[in-house]
Amino acid sequence: MNPVPPPGYTQSLIADDPFWLTLIKVLVIFVLLMLITLFMIWFERRVVGRMQQRPGPNWNGPFGLLQSLADGLKLAFKEDIRPVLADKAVFFIAPVLSVVPAFVAWSVIPLGPEVSIFGEQTALQLTDLPVGVLVVLACSSIGVYGIVLAGWASGSPYPLLGSLRSAAQVISYELALGLSIIAVVLYAGSLSTADIVAAQSTGWYVWLLPVSFMIFAVSMVGETNRAPFDLPEAESELVGGFHTEYSSLKFALFFLAEYVNMVTLSAVATTLFLGGWMAPWPLSLIPGVNEGWWPLLWFFGKTLAFLFVYVWLRGTLPRQRYDQFMRLGWKLLIPVSLVWLMLVATLRVLRTELTTGQILVVGGIALVILVGAALLIPDQAPPEEDKEPPVITDYPVPPLDLAVPETPKRRRRAVAGKRDDQQATETVGAGTSGEGDR
Question: Which intervals of the chain are annotated as region Disordered (predicted)?
Answer without folding.
Answer: 381-438
